Amino acid sequence: MSDRSEKRKIRRKRRVRNQIISYSAMVLILAVAIVGAVTGIRAAAKTLQERREAKEESVQAALEAARAEESAQAEAAVAELLDLNGTKEEETATYTPEDAFEEMVADTVEGMTLEQKVAGLFFVTPEQLTGVGTAIQAGDGTKEALAKYPVGGLIYAKQNIQSESQIKEMLINTVSYAPFPLFLGVDEEGGTVAKVAEALHLDNVGPMGEIGAANDVQAAYAANETIGNYLASYGFNVNFAPVADVLTNANNKVIGNRAFSDDPQVASQMVENAVQGLQAAGVSACLKHFPGHGDTDGDSHDGTVTTQRTQEEMQATEFLPFQAGIAAGADMVMVGHISAPELTGGDTVPASISEEIITGILRGELGYDGIVITDAMDMGAISEYYEADVAAIMALKAGADMVLMPEKFEEAYEGVIKAVQEGTISEERVNDSLKRIYRVKLRGLAG
Predict the structure, then answer these.
(1) Has this prediction a pTM greater than 0.85?
(2) Given 375, 378, 389, 401, which residue is catalytic?
(3) How high does pLDDT run on average in the chain?
């Protein structure tokens, strides 16, 4: 073999060996790469799994936190709702029918103008309201007068009553014209003071003195229930009765047998039953004549009337029938024009315009919070000494709620308006009186 051939053979073997080494290296590198890739993939997968799990845990934790918050909010909402319901139930439980009635009374008063409020404090005759000579019907004149002066009440006399149909129609029409509820009153005591019974020739129940003399409380109730029933049937809703005076002066001809008795205990029992009988018929009773007219021997229609009874004496005698009538629920108390210097520290001002007697004794000591009305202000005990406006202002400042029959109605009305405007009488004081008045007037609507 030649050297050239031998050299080619050696070079071929070297190439083959180098190729084998190269291929082996490549295979090794590839294997390492594969193993690394697999390991990397596994590591990456593990990392991804861990991240996924971490994310899922984070999401789960967030969901659980959200659920917890929502649950807490829901519980808070339920608790609040329950609390609100409890509050509402409590408010509902504490808001009584009496509260609703007081709200209705307050709303009525608040809805009035000052002029309407002041007019509502007066109780006048239909003649004083309309200016006619004798009122026997209610037509356009009454309608116009009530629109201008929506008075609190009208008091009728025998001259206004001609027949049952006439008085019924008159009162029905009057009520229909009034912008506010009206008191329609009359003096119907029985015996010598029975305006309706006399005008319509009804059976007279007789004087209360005879019932008291018989010491028959059931008769006192029955007589006044009878009066109340026929008054209500014609349309009246106020009776200026019963007389609650104790006849301590046998020479007293003004009161006489209009009073039940000279015994304060008997008089108290009779007055209590008289009030119940009247008001059972739907007619408001008015106790009269506070602080007591039974000891006097004069007539306040004509001039000054005075009692020298001490407060201790009156507490043991005169006040007892009034206290009994008040306890029985009398809607009104009439204060007389009686001077009682022993009650007022020597002051001779009539009780009807005395703050010491109305506010101090009747309201303060006897605890009366119903309607206080004056006796007729056109009587001599007032009209001879006081102008109509002055007397009305004094009565209201003293604590009266209603002024009965001022000598000059329009003058008294204008005077009171001016007194309120100038601050002599506060509008709050007027509102207090009107609330007492409307508690009675609206009582039938409370149910």
Answers:
(1) no
(2) 375
(3) 86
